[in-house]
Structures are given as C-alpha cells and as structure tokens.
Amino acid sequence: MKLNLFKKKNFKEGNPVKKSNYWIENLKTFSIAILIALTLRTFAFEPFSIPSGSMKPTLLEGDYLFVSKYSYGYSRHSFPMSFPGFSGRIFGSFPERGDVAVFKFTKNTKIDYIKRIIGLPGDKIQIKNGILFLNDKAINRQSMGLWSAKDRNNVMYTYDKYEEKLSDSVVYEVLDASPNGMLDNTDVYTVPEGYFFAMGDNRDQSSDSRILSQLGFIPFENLVGKAQIIFYSRDREESLWKLWLWPSSIRVERLFKSI
Q1: Which residues are paired to 12 by β-bridges?
Q2: Does residue 176 fall inside a structural domain?
Q3: Which of 37, 113, 244, 246 is least surrounded by Cβ atoms within 10 Å, i.e. has the fewest?
Q4: Is 115 a catalytic residue?
Q5: Could you tell me which of 99, 37, 127, 125 has the C-alpha nearest to residue 223?
Q6: Range of the domain at 48
C-alpha cells in the first residue's frame, strides 16, 4: 500500500493566507526591547566611557565600563536627565573608601565625573609632599618605577608610579607627574556630614575634591554608581575613519577587567 506522507492544504483561489500585522508586531518587539534597556540602565548597570586621563593608570582614555546603579541606592540622578525631581536617596548605602565612583559634577549636574572615593563624612584629608594622610595617618605608598603613556592630544608623559594601600583590602596604583606639584601640599580637609571626598589616581593631572572652588566635596545625592568592570577598550590614537585599524586598536588585555 502506498502511503501519502505529505498532504497538501487546499486553499480557495482568491483567498490569501491570513497574516498578522508585520509592523505592529515589530513595533511591539522594539518597544519591549527599549523598555528593558531603559530599566537595566536605570536600576542595574549603565555604560560610561572615559574621555580623559585623570584616573590613569586605573582607567585609560578609550575605556568603556559598566557602573552598578544599585550600589549606593537611587537618587534623582540615577534616572535619565535627573527626572523625576526628588531629594535624598532610596535604598541609600554609603560608598567605601577606595571605591571608583561616577557622580554628578557639583557645579553642573549635567556633567558626569569619575574619581576614587578617599574620604567619608567626618574624615580629615591632607596631602603632604605628595603623601596622602587620612585622619592624621600617612597612607603607605611604595614606588613601582616609571610609567609612560600618551594623553588624548598624543603627547607622551612619563610618571612616577606608586602602589597606594588605603587598607588591607584596598590597594591601587597612582601616578605622580612631578614632585612638589600644585596639589602635592594642601590644607586639611574635613569632610562634612552627607558629603564625600574624591581624588583622581593621576594625582597631578586631576581636578578633584582638593580644589574646593571647582569640584569640592561631593553630596551623597550626586553619586550615580560604582565602576565595576571594563567591557571594552580602544586606543584612541587611531582615527575612527581608519576602519582597517580598528582590530589592532583594541586593548585586548583590558577587556572584562575588574576595576
């Protein structure tokens, strides 16, 4: 007996197959994707890029990183365009000394800054001959030789590199471009309640809390999140229009590097 493995469907001539509305379905999918992306960006992780060298050698120009929005809770600055407008923080949690944090610039909250949190409310901070003092105690600093890199204007700088030990669990590298620099000797800063003191790891080339007329102390409300991981890094010496140089400009050794 011959078996009919395939059966043909009969359609009446002139009756096309019923199709769902293509554009409506795609619009729904696109809207859902945008909603998910905005939710993740607002409440979980937001991507940032590094445009300057104030955090060298920890962060380089051309690094792209994820910042956890939940680490310090949520303020109005956690949301796009700082909307809605409310004061304080929800589920607020203080940063720890040594955190690399993104925050809103105190003089213009449309600008994002990234620095290392050095002082918490009540702390006393001072720099003497380039040495960081925290609550009258000198922070241990060990020389690691010279370190060279180009800036965003393609100018080569050579720095003295040091390992700074803020605590047993917080150790990082800092740069000193020149001895007795403008910010290598400061007055004592006492961090007010509800504020934080931040510094760049590139100590002589960072506009940070040491300059009270510029950044100064950072309000808790201005914190956006904690820098967690570098997910992409590209050497910006190569022009974007030179597409054939893109693969060689990727800093493979920095991909998915924890901060």
Answers
A1: none
A2: no
A3: 244
A4: yes
A5: 99
A6: 22-122+192-258
